[in-house]
Amino acid sequence: MSNTQNKSNLNGDVHIHKNTDSNSIDKKEDDRPEFETNLANTLLHNFGEKIKIDFIKKNRIKVNVQKENIVEIAKFISLNMKFDHAEAVTGIDYPEQNEIEVVYHLGSYEDNLSNQILALSTSAIREDDPTPGSDRTKLPSLRNVFYSVEFHERECFEMLGVYFENHPDNRRLLLPEDWADIPPLRKDFKIKGR
Amino acid sequence: MGTASGIIKALNSGIKHIAIKRFTLRYPEEKLKFVGDGYQFDPVSGVGVAGLKGRHILFHDKCTGCQLCSIACEGIAEAISMVKVNEKWKQNKKSIMPQIDYGKCVFCGLCVDACPFYALYMTNDYELSSFSKEGLIYTPAQLQVKPNIEQDAEIKIDDRGATHG
Amino acid sequence: MSELPPGIKLEKEDDKIMTLNVGPQHPGSGHMRIIVKIDGDYIVSCDPDPGYVHRGEEKMAEYRNYITNIPHLERPVIHDSCNILYPYCLGVEEILGLEVPERAKYIRVIASELNRCVYTLYWLAIYGIFLGHSTMFMWPTGDRELLIDLLEKLSGARVTHAYFIPGGVRNDMPANFEDVCIRQINYFEKRIKQYDSIFYSNPILKSRTIKTGVLAQQDAISLGATGSVLRASGVDFDVRKKEPYDVYDNLDFQSNTLKSGDSYARSKIPWLDMLESCRIIRNALEKIPKSGSVRVKLKPNPKAGNVETYKRVESGRGSLGMYIISNGKPEPYRVKISVGSFRNLICLPYLLKGEKLGNMPAVYWSLNYWPVEADR
Amino acid sequence: MLKDLVMPQNANVFVSKLGDILVKAIDQPLGYAINWGRIWSLWPVHIETACCSVEFGAASGPRYDVERFGIIEAFGSLRQCDLVVVQGTITRKMAPRLRLVYDQMPDPKYVIAMGACAITGGLYFDSYNVLPGIDGVLPVDVYVPGCPPRPETLIQGCMLLQEKIKCMKAR
Predict the structure, then answer these.
(1) Could you tell me which chains touch chain C, where touching means 3 or more CB pairs under 8 A?
(2) How much is the pTM?
(3) Which residue in A1, A19, C57, C171 has the fewest CB atoms around it within 10 Å?
(4) How far are the Cα atoms of B79, B99, B134, C319, D84 from residue D140, in angstroms, in the given order?
(5) A84-187: which CATH topology?
């Protein structure tokens, strides 16, 4: 499905912001796809300083938000922009920046949005000596906004040690019951012989 | 549609199979025929030659002991280790050749892709079961033996179904 | 009593509610455990306990370079290995800036459609035998061998092909592959059309699956279901149609949708997809360029810039995405595999609640769930 | 002669000698018969540990049809089984369950390690959750290499196991 079709079918709820704000994206760059830029501008128009656009590519947008605002922005994305499910929740460990980034890849089953993936990323503080669940590595859970993230967040909790507040069921999912080491997907967890 | 007609329909399509030929391959007597002599790789064009990925065959007169196969396997299964051989080849100064542990090998064929001297190929031999782990380790001398196998059964399709023959 | 291994405890429940462990050694559970609480014959709640085949693929991928990642990344679904390598190859091609030759794109489509049928037939066989329909185990496993033969001619292995590689495919098609492929696909299509009479119109199957485990359209969307589970609930979403990759936009096919959302519809969608796959393969074999290169030559340790990419394809179990982050080293910084099985798992507690225990295999296997893939 | 032997004072010796002779005469054919029975009823436990179960399923399919040898018939109850085919990777979560299953089986029992992961860990030699082979968990009789092994290799492995049982002393 081409982008021109997408634009004509765009849902009425989404107000495309036409005026060039100081914060909005420069449209002079030709390689930026139009439909995706409009989507990003909708977000920028409504939240302004709270969000930061990482990149806009064909069919892919990545926005970066603070963890205090993520629930509010996710609600907006879910209700007004019609992104209705999460494809993946990825935790990425950055020991140098001392943070753990969590990326929600949000997709939609609406006809005009179905080729789009909106990556909503936020980051939590990383502790060098993790005690999963009781240290400062905490994020608000999006489970009440996107129901489909429930198991993904559980997986992220055990693999990266990010505790999701307000998640109904922050238990272990894949690892053995007697796992007592640090969460395995952290960079300081070394595997055998490497 | 009623239950009865559903049962009759299912029975009817099942009963037809009485007249269909047997599909079973009688394994120890018949063996499947494969494309070519096994998976090979042409480093000049950079494209493989289709074939079964079975046990390797090592050509001692071409192996230079460059360890590229071993390096390729390092990130995959660590199945290939270089061992000393009691042979003198002028292209192989260090006299080392790959030894493959089939307890670790996953038959991906990336070692064949890595070999630039046409020394390591894969053959159609797949019968490698053993009583012990040591029996799965193939030394360079064992690897140079060309397997002697008769594989000739092929799928034949006609009006009365598929069969091997 | 002997000492119990860690993690297994004997719980004491009240008289009415009983806890039942289904799996991991249970013919109906596969490689996972489902902890169900039952009241008489009715399931009160269900708690899936996956992770018995969790092998740390994502961690291992961080220690291997872009080429040596190929063999182990296909292991989660060995019988659908082309489709799980597809998004990885697409992603790495974007990261390294490779242009895939046209012929390789068509070969990829053919291989991935063959592989989708192989996967679906195995799943159908398992679904059949757990519903007590042993003919439905024998027929698909037999017909599967026809396609496995084709894939074996193409790639050299029965199931773990390791055939896709960033920049194309490992080797070209063998001689007269097209003729053999057309002949076997025609026969195969004739065979699977008979499944309708022996399986899908069988009153035993119908009484066990119709109106069990109904997933409404709105719930399927909000639970984030994908693949056959989603399309059985009436949502028309197929990545091949919505976000065509490689040459799928040149090919003639349709995505199948059913409305009812019960186990019967979920079991029928993959079968309809197989018929569609046969069409795609024939179409691709007509359009494929007759000669040309099939692989871009790669350097041994290719390096990439600071790029991240999320690519997805339609696998046998639904949308399969790979999120690859590169930081300029020969190894990826992070690989996340987002698989259809794991996404569909969340439907299981929802669907089983209030269902009878005897319907559990019918509902559980209809989710098109492959535990090894979900655990990764 | 015989009359000399069967004296009241050496009757005990005679009986024990006769016992030895009887055991020697019967042991071999009886043991052969017992082993013959065991060879043709190698029924595996239905425990799938990882992805090799795909090829295990294919081996029971119409093309290879291992049941024509009387072996590897998929079976429900582990109390009636005498073979564990470890179908692939054993993770740390699965290992205690596998041992639990093995301990519950009646003697005699045999183990086939199927696939590279079950033999040495295979591809997952550096994974944090995978055991490096099942030798530490179960005593293995036959190793079937491959990733996964072709059904032919599995059948060959079963035949090796039959050879091994033939040479075993039946108890």
Answers:
(1) A, B, D
(2) 0.86
(3) A19
(4) 20, 24, 13, 40, 9
(5) Beta Polymerase; domain 2 (3.30.460)
